[in-house]
Amino acid sequence: MTTKSLFQPRFRALRALAFGLSIGFAAPVFADNLPDIQRLIRQGQHAQALEKVDQYLASRPKDAQGRFLKGLILTEMNRPADAIGVFTKLSEDYPELPEPYNNLAVLYAQQKQYDKARTALEMAIRTHPSYAIAYENLGDVYAKLASQAYDKALQLDGANATTQNKLALIRDLISTSGKGNVRPPAPTPAPTPVAAAIAPQPKPAAPAPTATVVATTPAASSPAPVVSEPRPAPAQPAPVQDSARDDVAKAIAAWARAWSRKDMKGYFAAYTSDFTSGKGGRKAWEEERQQRIGDRSGNISVTYDEPRITIDGDRATARFRQHYKAPGLNSSSNKTLVFVRTGGKWLIKEENAR
Amino acid sequence: MQKLKLVLPALLGLAVVVAMVFFFQGEEEPDTAAAAPASQTGELPVWPVRADTGSEPTGLPPTLGDAGPESQLARIFREIEGRNLGNALQLTESLLQQYPNYRLAHLIKGDLLLARARPLQGFGALNGLPAEQVNDLRAEALKRLQAYREKPPADYVPRYLLQMRPDQRYAVVVDTERSRLYVYENDLSSGRPRFVADYYVTQGKLGADKFVEGDKKTPIGVYHVTADLSRQKLPDLYGNGAFPINYPNEWDRRQGRGGSGIWLHGTPSDTFARPPLASDGCVVLTNQDLEAIRENLQVGLTPVIISNSVDWLSLDDWARERDELNRSIENWRADWESRDIKRYLSHYSREFKAGGQDYSQFAAQKQQVNAGKEWIKLELKNLSVFRNPGKEEVVVVTFDQDYRSNNLNNRMKKRQYWLREGGQWKIIYEGAA
């Protein structure tokens, strides 16, 4: 609505600004201040943090990171109107950043202004179609709006509808570098695209895709919980396998994308926490990959041919031809990734190239 | 004379069936006395369409009742059928902007929002919703969609409106099975009723054909509005106003029908519309529709004819029926004037009953009166002829009677009920109106 109309005409002009911002992050000149403020926030010293951030912004009034932190601090200090002001202004100045929209939505949702929350989240997703937290929040907001609509339709007592999931506030302004919170692409266009898009990863114990969707997006208002979906019987493993295969395919896509973008956080997140290349420990491996990927100059492109995926319980093997391009090095190789499912996610446990 | 009820044109039928799949998933219609049997079988009766052309009815006047939400609902369901849920949601939200209290639209909105979190499963899809209310809203949607898809054809008229008196500007015809109210204009230039608009209505909780007080049914018959009650004088339940009708009429009383307080009225402020079966027997319109018909209603004059399933006649059949009745009435008048008591009494049924007299008492009295007559002059003015809905062939004839004779002059407004007996129209009741 208002955000939408403000946003549209400025989009092109501000793309450059947002880019400048991401460069700014990496520069060490701010490092002495922002981490301090973040530390104060973590320690719950919000008044002090606010003071610091105001100082910080005095010399750089346009600084996105500083303003973002200020919005966070105000949120923590339970000053929603002020926080909304900060995030609104930030989203107007940097409409390409999804985080201010997301946090605006969280604040609106706290005030039960779900329509505004929905608009803000839809903006966040429009700017960053792969923004997982925004999707999850939006799912909750849709469910909340649905239950409000049902209340109005059927004159239900909306009072019992307060058991709503708290939306997730985003604490880091990181989307500019594409790190974290990145959601794998949906493998196939489902008849209800959004429904497919916001489906979370299946839980390891209950590998029933439809059931998890319902269970994790409670449509809060109804007196009876919405969990009565029949789960597929164990005798029919096919759909479960299919969904697991999709999830593994998504994990491969996310891994290749993080690699291509030099998104080290996302790249490392694709591996199990104990993954090593065999030489030295995890730390040594991370350092080596940091050098080879994160610190490499020029563009990296990692693509691959259709993988062959086999699922065996919580273990999956993916074989595919990988095409790697970087300045001075083009190579194609056969790759095998062994995934294990941990906490609902498929993570790379072994990586072999031939 | 044939009653025309043809089968749906194939394409139209398909569209209806597709919509029904959405509505009927999982659940059954509530089993009430008046639930339209047609909806339950999934096969909807349709307006009579000329068999020779097979084409869709055309040439309807431009005023037809598209003012309500029907066209928007139809678009929304088309988008849902086409899986364009985003469009459907947008349309639903704009519908809600127009009618913020529209519960049906809120329910659809809930379904469409829920569909963003999981696949759309049908109407009122969230588990644990009160089934009765969801069924009510589903029933409303079906009635409205049906009305939208099946408009009365232009060259057919409700059988009941055989003749209106010149100052009766409009007539109201209610079809309880379709939950629909039709407004017809008395088009004096063509001498026939002209369709103006139609509206969704609510009837009694237990349907139509009222018999006793408290049976929560809407009466079937020929009535007229008797008052115009403004909003200020009424509780909120009646919405923007009310028009009482004269139930029970002479015919109802004769058949032992009871109860009272049957009104056309508006909708309470907390909702845009009420379910198809919800009143205690009144015919309920949305407030905006009540406002729309308000200026068409003349107290004491405008006929309100309630049928459980309106019969439609082609103009030819309608004209034939009307001529036949006019001829019978004229013969009755002329035979009374002729003072030939046998011919005069031949117009009365043996079942005649009125003013405490049965046929023989009535005949004896007439014979006695007739003996003193040297001449009779009888004029009928402002004649109206309305067919009574129902299985029996009954028409309600009302006129201003100007009676003059050698020993008595009398003017009165008279109402007669004529019954078709053995191919002849016979008077079965008459009295002052």
UniProtKB/TrEMBL annotation, chain A:
Specify where the region named Disordered lies, as residue ranges: 201-245
User: Known SMART domains for this protein?
Assistant: TPR
Pfam annotation, one family: Cds6_C
Keyword Ligase assigned: no
Top-level taxon of the source organism:
Bacteria
As given in the record, the signal peptide range reads: 1-31
Its recorded name reads Tetratricopeptide repeat protein
Q: Which SUPFAM superfamilies match?
A: NTF2-like, TPR-like
Instruction: Output compositional bias ranges, type Low complexity.
Output: 208-230
Which PROSITE patterns does the UniProt entry name for this protein? TPR
Q: Does the keyword Ligase apply?
A: no
Per UniProt, the keywords (alphabetical) are: Repeat, Signal, TPR repeat
TPR repeats (start-end) = 98-131
- The protein's organism comes out as Azonexus hydrophilus
Q: Which residues form the Cds6 C-terminal domain?
A: 248-351
UniProtKB/TrEMBL annotation, chain B:
Q: Which residues form the active site?
A: H265 (proton donor/acceptor), C282 (nucleophile)
Which domain of life does this protein belong to?
Bacteria
**Any Pfam family:** YkuD
Give the pathway: Cell wall biogenesis; peptidoglycan biosynthesis
Q: Where is this region: Disordered?
A: 48-67
SUPFAM superfamilies documented for this protein:
L,D-transpeptidase catalytic domain-like (SSF141523), NTF2-like (SSF54427)
Protein name according to UniProt = L,D-transpeptidase family protein
Cross-referenced PANTHER family:
L,D-TRANSPEPTIDASE YAFK-RELATED, LD-TRANSPEPTIDASE
Which keywords does UniProt give here? Answer: Cell shape, Cell wall biogenesis/degradation, Peptidoglycan synthesis, Transferase
Check the record and name the Gene3D superfamilies matching this protein: 3.10.450.50, L,D-transpeptidase catalytic domain-like (2.40.440.10)
- Please state which protein family the record places this protein in: Belongs to the YkuD family.
Q: Give every L,D-TPase catalytic domain span.
A: 170-307
This protein's species is Azonexus hydrophilus
Look up the coiled coil feature and give its residue ranges. none
